[in-house]
TrEMBL record:
Family that this chain belongs to: Belongs to the cytochrome P450 family.
Protein name (Swiss-Prot/TrEMBL): Cytochrome P450
Keyword ATP-binding on entry: no
An annotated Gene Ontology molecular function: iron ion binding
Needed cofactors: heme
Record-listed heme binding positions: C465
Organism the protein comes from: Glarea lozoyensis (strain ATCC 20868 / MF5171)
Keyword terms: Heme, Iron, Membrane, Metal-binding, Monooxygenase, Oxidoreductase, Transmembrane, Transmembrane helix
InterPro entries the record matches: Cyt_P450, Cyt_P450_E_grp-I, Cyt_P450_sf, Cytochrome_P450_monoxygenase
Transmembrane segments: 20-39
Superkingdom of the organism of origin: Eukaryota
Length: 537
């Protein structure tokens, strides 16, 4: 009996070993076939790129997780040229002619599958993540009244309230001399969240006034980190059904914070929906037509379609994130570049203070006549586009031809904005802050036109950012109020820039550094502020 049991055990062990060997061989053979195909027979096989990126999407996932994707893309384009294969089925194209062909109104593309992941917790895509072109166009029509010229005029008054608070808070402690050190990024972030919540929901987060809601930017950052790299996982189709469920809480802290951010946005929406419901019952109409007033009362004239609750929740999360971040990073970055370039700071301060005699005068249409202010904002957005890396577009039936290269259906292509914005053939001295490159009278009309054709921080075409004009209003009001009422200087050593001891790509001291996690995250500069009245009385 013992001999029989021993023989059976040996046979079973041998069987398990053989099974393991067969499975191992099968996996090796499978990956060998896949990698060989991707390197030799795949439609993108002839395009250069990092070796591992040509056979797998894992390098992309890693750089997205690290927040260095824009630096990786720049390194790749410098090494391999204008067309780089950065994934098994993905290309980054940096030629000026590619931008309108990929993102323009006639582009034969749709948004890539990565967009399916971002709003999964809401149960429906937001307007910015909507892949279906017809559905996206309908959603844009619903949103259009909130960004009309009339709405922008009303919005300016509300943004001014937050801009005044920003200027006042920065000036605290500077009434009799230079204030203590303050982190410009923190205050720009508070401003961004306050003005966008006021415009979106009719009530501010109050971050400029107190600590209560200052935790929100932190969970937004965590949510962005998680969603950015997860959306590119090779096995995302198996992960996506788990997102938005209780399981997500146990994946990682970033994943849990992503749910927390969604819950916060949903609670803001629920409060706004309840207010709208009460107003309708009472037969009243809100005197402040914020963004969600338009969304809650939108109805398609042809189909009778209105927004679903899930669509509204997705838009709620989007409006807070997209509306606050782009403005905040641009204010902080612009202040960094102005402090790094005293001549530019002096010229801008002079323009603002000569244009207005009091803070009450800081408004449009006169604000829009300040050419140097507008140029400083454009140059900052060129150097630090809020979404610096390639946003994927999937080629549709019939393919797409760019610069004599034909790309078949199913291929992912995109425009690497950070790379394109630092192309020396279009922007001489691309790492230098030169606002005058966007002023026709100080350059040539042709060069300014060429610069603006490539500088696309809000993208172009039907999928561009609908809030572009509102963002410019917020940026101008914030910078004008701060620099009209205050003098600003560097506190100690200028923070926010790169350094020789930093990782590759972050060695430039004159460049404001950011982490690329869907939207850009950053720190600094540290500043000291003195009330302007001190030196003029």
């Amino acid at each position: 009996m013992y001999i029989f049991e021993r023989a059976l055990a040996i046979w079973q062990a041998s069987s398990y070993t053989q099974c393991a060997l067969y499975l191992t061989f099968t996996f090796i053979f499978y990956f060998f076939i896949v990698f060989t195909y991707r390197l030799t027979f795949h439609p993108l096989a002839r395009y250069p790129g990092p070796f591992f990126a040509r056979i797998s999407d894992w390098p992309l996932v890693i750089y997205c997780y690290r927040g260095d994707r824009h630096l990786w893309e720049l390194k790749n384009h410098l090494k391999y040229g204008p067309i780089v294969r950065y994934g098994a089925n993905s290309l980054s194209i940096s030629t000026p002619t590619s931008l309108p062909l990929i993102h323009g109104p006639k582009a034969n593309v749709k948004k890539g599958s990565w967009y399916k992941t971002l709003d999964i917790s809401a149960g429906a895509p937001s307007v910015q993540m909507e892949i279906n072109k017809h559905a996206h166009a309908l959603r844009r029509r619903f949103l259009a009244p909130a960004f009309s010229e009339r709405a922008l005029k009303n919005a300016e008054k509300l943004i001014t309230v937050s801009a005044l608070k920003l200027s006042k808070n920065l000036g605290l402690g500077g009434e009799e001399g230079w204030s203590e050190a303050k982190n410009m990024n923190d205050w720009a972030t508070y401003f961004g969240f306050d003005f966008i919540s006021d415009l979106g929901y009719g009530s501010s987060f109050g971050m400029l006034d107190g600590q209560e809601n200052r935790w929100i930017p932190g969970v937004l950052k965590s949510a962005s980190v998680f969603l950015y790299y997860v959306g590119y996982l090779p096995f995302i189709d198996f992960v996506r059904p788990l997102m938005g469920t209780a399981i997500q809480d146990y994946i990682s802290q970033d994943a849990a914070d992503s749910l927390k951010y969604t819950e916060m946005a949903n609670s803001r929406l629920a409060a706004r929906m309840e207010l709208e419901r009460k107003l309708k019952i009472e037969g009243k109409e809100t005197s402040r037509k914020d963004t969600f007033h338009y969304l809650l009362n939108s109805k398609d004239a042809v189909t009778g379609k209105t927004f679903t609750k899930e669509e509204l929740q997705a838009d709620s999360a989007l409006i807070i994130a997209a509306g606050s971040d782009g403005v905040a990073i641009t204010i902080a970055a612009c202040m960094f570049y102005l402090l790094k370039n005293p001549e530019a700071m002096g010229r801008l301060v002079k323009e603002i203070r000569e244009a207005f005699s009091s803070v009450e005068e800081i408004r449009n249409p006169k604000l829009n006549t300040l050419l140097y202010l507008h140029a400083c904002i454009e140059e900052t957005l060129r150097m630090n586009p809020p979404k610096p890396s390639t946003l994927p577009r999937e080629v549709l039936q019939g393919g797409l031809t760019i610069d004599e290269n034909h790309f078949p259906k199913g291929v992912n292509i995109g425009s690497p904005l950070y790379v394109m914005h630092h192309d020396p053939s279009i922007f001489p001295e691309p790492w230098s802050f030169k606002p005058e490159r966007f002023i026709a009278s100080e350059s040539t009309a042709e060069r300014v036109a060429a610069a603006r054709a490539v500088s696309a921080p809000f993208l172009i075409g039907p999928m561009n950012c609908i809030g572009k004009n509102m963002s410019f209003i917020a940026l101008k009001l914030a910078l004008a109020h701060v620099l009209f009422s205050n003098d600003v200087r560097i506190s100690g050593k200028l923070t926010g820039g790169g350094g020789k001891d930093e990782e590759e790509g972050r060695e430039r001291e004159d460049e404001y550094q950011m982490q690329d996690w869907i939207i850009g995250f950053r720190d600094g500069p540290m500043i000291e502020v003195r009330k302007r009245s001190l030196v003029e009385t």
